[in-house]
Write a structure and sequence with these properties.
Length: 682
Amino acid sequence: MADLNTDVRYIKGIGEQRAKALEKLGITDLRGLISWFPRRYDDRTQAKKISELIPGESACVAAMIASPPTVSHIRKGMDLVKVRAVDDTGVLDVTFFNQTWLKNNLVQGETYIFYGKAEGNLLRKTMASPIVEAEGRREFTGRIVPIYPLTAGVSQLILSRSIRQGLDACADILPDVLPDSVRQEHHLCRIEYAYENIHFPESPEALDLARRRLAFEELFLFTIGLQRLRNRRETVHVPPCHDVDMGAFYDSLPFTLTDAQRRCVEEALADMRSGAPMNRLCQGDVGSGKTMVAAACVYFCVKNGRQAALMAPTEILAKQHYAGLAPLLENLGIRCALLTGSTPAKTKRSIAEQLTAGEIDFAIGTHALITEGIAYRDLGLVVTDEQHRFGVGQRAALAAKGEHPHTLVMSATPIPRTLALILYGDLEVSVIDQLPPGRQPVETYAVPGSYHQRVYNFIRKLAAEGRQTYIVCPMVSENDELPDERKAVTEYAKKLQAEVFPDLKVAFVHGKMKAKEKDAVMTAFAAHETDILVSTTVIEVGVDVPNAAVMVIENAERFGLSQLHQLRGRVGRGKHQSYCILISDNQNEETRQRLKVMTKTTDGFKIAEEDLRLRGPGDFFGQRQHGLPGLKIADIGCDTQLLQEARQAAETLLAQDPDLTSCPAAAERLAELFTQAADTLN
Ligand code: ADP
Ligand code: MG
């Protein structure tokens, strides 16, 4: 008997090799398999007549084989099967490459369903290598077909057949985390129905019900988890911080804080003096100067005799914070240390000892800060940077290193206040709504791929003026496979170096590199030892190289607005006029609009609003753009209504049954979700 924890090799057709491939997607057991949700769907319910086929568009057509298929040998290793199919409106010539068995499988006089891209003209329609199946089989045609994100060695066919088996084995034993009362009150379908129809929807309506149910479930668990964290915190009292003369800190800065920065600092300090632990979200657009707000809080905390920690999502960012803050704060008598995954074991041990002894006041680092064996003498303040990269669990893990420390969360993702309330529990929100003086808005252009030469010329011209350029590398996925970023980045960088910029220094960085290598590349770029940095979105978060003045984003259609905004925020951080060039050949109306928004405004909040508006609700026939860790189906931007409902249900349940004794499945799932390790980190 199989259950959810049964190894995927249980599935017929999955052996060692495919199991290995699936493991790359994080799928090891049946639970993982059936929770691998489609990224989009193809609606193949409607079959067209041959005369209705539009060249260039994919469609299903039901047609009868008119004459026996022929096979011709084109060249070595290449065979071609040709067959003519007809319906009462016309003729369709179909060809298949290297599928010679079809010669015997396609029977003259029988009707089949073909799904593929139509070509040809009004008089003569053709289809090359369509999917073909017998009428009424309804595996790949005649229904809404799930399209899964893939990896090498696993095809759509294998995935969907494996998931079929997985569902058949587990449908009756799926634990339902929703109590019946909640399910009924909110008109949600049963768990078996939801899993069946998210993978193999009977109809658009069934898919809708399934999605709604699964999204609700995620949001429900998410809010319960947050609510419990919050409940634990509410009654807590801590000794209030005493006042500190901040003059010395402000005087030591090379600039004056903006009014907005000052206000955020004041709000945070007031929290810390209040006698309850601070829980504050500091939101500010890229480049608004959040780091200095954090530094002010650290200064205040340490001068109160307690320790502080700052956790960044990447090693690069942690080092950058250390390089920027340590000299400033050391000067003010604050002992700082950097702790990351690549800190040598010996240094790590010594830092750990000093933290325990209270000989270090301020630790800056990655999630290494929350690993076992790191203990603080008196951790009074925890700052997390670019919070959306961290799971709730990690934030809690760092806070657990102290006795109800104050927490400050910094985020450049502008989210509406109602959402912030839910996502960040009961965090108070401060907004830095002002950029430091003297910043010039980044000039932004959206251009087609035919402009590449001009873009390269432009990069060269600015390089001659001493500026540097980021190029976010083109990433194309073939057949829905997840793109191979390592290959894409290295090959593009090599090509640029050899063919386009032999006289400049081109470097590259991608997420698959070791932290040390990444760091070396970034450091060299920051020191202007290289001119052009080709990368994936690993540079999306927080890196600060004021001399970089050009950001080129290839395949810009692949990114959501907020992400484009984050990427653009890497330039325009110094005194030079900066440029962002979005390259895309995509003609899709929504894409065009999205890129246009980027050229029109640099205001992050406006961009976030537009992002929501453009994507709109119910966008699940399209590709999903981003989500939060732990949310695979729900989309915080679109499912606002559902979020409210789920939240209300969660609150009602917790009020009656705070320990969730009535729904052990939910309690179990929560325990998993909220202890899950740092898998969203680079
Ligand atoms: P972000 O909000 O994106 O984290 P940073 O804290 O990295 O922004 O600040 C961006 C840049 O602006 C840094 O180089 C920082 O030194 C500088 N900066 C911050 N505050 C001010 C200010 N008040 N005046 C001038 N420059 C500032
Ligand atoms: Mg920052």
